[in-house]
Amino acid sequence: MSYYAARALNWKLAQYQLTKVIALFRIGATLRPKFTEIEWLHQNAFSAMSEAIRAQDWRRFEEAFQERHSGSDQFHEKYGYSFIHFVLPKNPPDMYDLSPKE
Questions:
Q1: Of residues 3 and 46, which shows the higher confidence score?
Q2: Among 75, 22, 12, which Cα is nearest to 46's?
Q3: Residues 101, 77: Cα–Cα separation, whole Å
Q4: What is the pTM of this model?
Q5: Which of 4, 28, 101, 102 has the most CB atoms around its CB within 10 Å?
Q6: Rounded CA gap, 96 and 13, in Å?
């Protein structure tokens, strides 16, 4: 959702969604200590996404998002979950209006 919000230049929604994802990853890292590399996602890819949102820079956001996507697949393969692959849907969910409300 953060991806599509950023693409629509709705930076507040993009940051809100990213903040929620980061919170879920922190919970996951706490509950599953063997996945300590989850912190890599937060420190590198997620922080780069957040910086791009603050700068309101779609290109930087998209690059950071693609890095996170690649890191996700590598993480799953490393821990024996190679059957899990993230695929970005071609379109955002129809039930959301992603346009900025400012």
A1: 3
A2: 22
A3: 40
A4: 0.81
A5: 4
A6: 11
